[in-house]
Structure formats: C-alpha cells, structure tokens
Amino acid sequence: MKAEDLAEAGQTAEQLSLDASREARLVAESAIDQVRARFGAQVIGPATVFRRAS
Length: 54
Fold this sequence. Notes:
By secondary structure, this protein is mostly helical. The protein has one helix at residues 20-39.
C-alpha cells in the first residue's frame, strides 16, 4: 500500500450519501463519542429493551 498527495481532512470534499438511516447513525455515533469524551465511557451504554406487560 502506498499513499501519495495526502491532504488535511478539512481540505477535502464531504462525500454525500443517499442513505438517510446511515447518516442518522453517523450523527448519533458522533454525539455519543462527544458525551463519552466529556463525561467518561461509563455514562453511555447499549440500550435495554423492556417487555411490556400484556
């Protein structure tokens, strides 16, 4: 593998996506990363599903 003519991330174009659900997941992932960076990894974890009583 060889990398040439690399540029800073801020100097590149952003790839557009036509997959709205993927974009929503990426936004949520970024927000979770920011919360973990600020408050620690233990404050956010996987969601729990509760069964509703019939």
